[in-house]
Amino acid sequence: MDRNTALEIVKKHLPERRYIHTLGVTDTAVMLAKRYGADERKAELAGIFHDYAKYRPKEEMESIIRQENMPQDLLLYDSELWHAPVGAYLVKKEVGIQDEEILDAIRYHTTGRPGMTTLEKVVFLADYIEPNRSFPGVDEVRKAAENSLDEAIVLSLQNTIRFLLSKNQLIYPQTVETYNDIQRKMNQEVT
Fold first, then answer.
1. Cα dihedral angle (90, 149, 26, 113), rounded to 10 degrees?
2. For residues 29 and 21, what is the distance between their CA atoms, to the nearest angstrom?
């Protein structure tokens, strides 16, 4: 599927500001893929479709999570997390993308996961640092992304966890596991 066709499909599902975000994520994902050796075409498609389900009704997403045997513990956490796994499912079902690497990059772009592939890391980070984002700490993560994908992801996860703690919100365990996994690898590289 070419870029323009993919963008036409996704644009129907997003408000204008989220579509602009999607363009930023897509371009950032391609740039990071070039820098870190991920498949640029897959990064582009995952970037385009990463928020495909973001504006689906919560009831629809909850139903899909329950019926499609997705991790049920997702339902115990903020519904902001739901659009990633539901999006991967709907992109496969409605758009016809079958490539599991692309689908996993969509699936894990909000929570991460231990053992993330380079493509998954690229899309996860692109979503966080795309040029239209503006919040405390994002510039530090952008700077880190120039030299180390893992360092940038660790910083982004630290920021996210601190933010959730400051709001007294629950932190999805897989997010903590992702942080621990990457930090552990970085610590082993130093010793």
1. 10
2. 12
What tokens were used for 30? 């391609």
Q: Which two tokens stand for residue 148?
A: 């180390």
Nearest Cα to Cα of residue 100 among 113, 112, 88: 88
The runs of H, that is alpha helices, within the chain are: 3-11, 16-36, 40-49, 58-67, 83-90, 100-107, 118-129, 138-145, 149-166, 173-190
CA 106 to chain centre: 6
pLDDT digits (tens, 9 = 90+) for 137-157: 999 999 999 999 999 999 999
Domain 3-190 has CATH 2.60.120.600: no
- What pLDDT, in 10s, does the model give residues 6-29? 999 999 999 999 999 999 999 999
Report CA Rg, the chain. 16
